[in-house]
Automatic annotation (TrEMBL):
Enzyme nomenclature, EC number: 2.6.1.9
Protein name: Histidinol-phosphate aminotransferase
Keywords: Amino-acid biosynthesis, Aminotransferase, Histidine biosynthesis, Pyridoxal phosphate, Transferase
Family: Belongs to the class-II pyridoxal-phosphate-dependent aminotransferase family. Histidinol-phosphate aminotransferase subfamily.
Cofactor: pyridoxal 5'-phosphate
HAMAP family for the chain: HisC_aminotrans_2
Gene Ontology MF term list: histidinol-phosphate transaminase activity; pyridoxal phosphate binding
Catalytic activity as recorded in UniProt: L-histidinol phosphate + 2-oxoglutarate = 3-(imidazol-4-yl)-2-oxopropyl phosphate + L-glutamate
This protein's record includes keyword Ribosomal protein: no
Tagged with keyword NADP: no
Pfam families: Aminotran_1_2
CDD domains: AAT_like (cd00609)
Gene coding for it: hisC
Amino acid sequence: MSARPEPRPGVMQIEAYVPGKSAVAGVKKIHKLSSNETPLGPSPKAIEAIRAAGHFELYPDGSAAKLREAIAAKYGLNPDRLVCGAGSDELLSLLAHAYVGPGDEGIYSQYGFLVYRIAILTAGGTPVVAPEKDYRVDVDAILAKVTDRTKIVFLTNPSNPTGTYIPFDEVKRLHAALPPHVLLVLDAAYAEYVRRNDYEAGLELVATSENVVMTRTFSKIYGLANLRLGWMVGPAHVVDAVNRIRSPFNINGPAMAAGIAAIQDEAHVAKAVEHNERWLSWLSQEIEALGLKVTPSVCNFIMIHFPQEPGRTAKDADAFLSGRGLILRRIESYGLPHALRLTVGDEEANRLVVEALRDFMGVKDFMGGKHA
Ligand SMILES: *Cc1c(COP(=O)(O)O)cnc(C)c1O
């Protein structure tokens, strides 16, 4: 007998998720480029909807009916197949809890989102990591990890923190080769940003399969990260299981109202996509021109690789940039100690980052500062 309460086995194995930094001691003006938030903010209509939501004394609609209807209308889905969550993080965790237990295995990709690992361990299961090739998800490597104990496979597409994606054909190939008892979770948090003909988030695959679900979020392109709002779509039996274990009022009224307004403001989303396309390629080109390797990204962030020589490492760069109020994300917790992740910011932040990296790398600016 213990002298004090002890968490159940596995809990103390979990390394708590460490969010991106949001402040630097001694630096007043900061640009937070560490959490893939949108520089455009949410739709003004979403802010208006929160103001109008009112009645904080009343419990919210636990079924999130109006929000599910708005999402269903936008994507041509059946609202009964949707579950909303306090961020897609909550849904990822609920899926692990519903389908994984002690003795079971959950697979995710080498540089996959750390939340999967936490969710699998919290549910009492065993995380199994499939290696990636050149920072890209490797479908064959995932399939090689499947055993009789596999219950769930988490696939981020496109991926965070690498920014890479796999074509939809590859997703279909993965699904076709998985045993039917394995739940395939497609985490499409950055789907709205992708501009590639061979990419599909996979809504049709969800609609035509008994073992595929997709999670989406309002935290990224919709700019509502603070409100904690996400949704999933899946087969009726999975929706039923998740609804049994989620807390009854898991999302709040103002968040639901904002989500409805945000998803209907297509002009705002288009603006965000346009901004991202322009600055994603500008940042990638400018930073490569400084002699740093950038992994090609289809998201709203890029992974920058730094040399391993003293004074020029990712850690040194992080300290240098932080001193100028530019907060990027160290990703050593993903096994990427020599890279930093940079979120596409507003024009001012983007230009400051390139300027700072130029100084950090000691590159002479022969263009006389005339860049784009
Ligand atoms: C940001 C992100 C999410 C979204 O998380 P929320 O809980 O909805 O804020 C999900 N998956 C990945 C890979 C992400 O990067």
